[in-house]
Amino acid sequence: MPAALLALSAVPLAAGAFRLSELAGGAEITPANARFFASPLPVVLHILSASMYAFLGAFQFATGLRQRMPGWHRAAGRFLVLCGLLVGLSGLWMTLFYSRPAGTGELLYVLRLLFGSAMVVSILLGFAAIRRGNANRHRAWMMRGYAIGLGAGTQVLTQLVGALIIGPPSELGEALQMGAGWVINLAVAEWAIRKRPAPPARMASPRVSH
Fold this sequence. Notes:
Layout: H1 2-25, H2 34-38, H3 40-59, H4 63-68, H5 70-97, H6 106-131, H7 135-149, H8 151-166, H9 171-195
């Protein structure tokens, strides 16, 4: 599973690295990147936190590693909660306050706010669940949050398929293709959550009276 998740995130991570190199190298300012040069901190935080979230997060779902190194899983998990929240919150900030790029319609704007908020809420619910000792609910909510966070990887595929079938997309087509990436990831996550059998209930130890 980690290998598949890392492969899915490879293109967005490469795009993020290219964006950082643009900002660091003083690339030519164009209408497509002017908003990043005008306010670079949100996009830099978004790219760096998303890179850590995608890479380290993939190994959180490796059952063998989690069982052999529970301490590492917990420590990495705390760090990933911070990374994931930063990804979601910075994405929401950019949606609300950056100027909209060409081709961004109202539907895509709403979808970004919806799924960005859903990612933040999922991570908070997953963190609250493990604090209560509910590992199954923790795992489910963290899978949902990670699925939304990896939406950019699946969106590369949905946009490629859309371009091959219908050509350059309209504003509506762009929104539907982007939305499909998030929906597909969440559907796969829900399938994985429900497919995994629940562990048997632990029996309470009988008390011995003296």
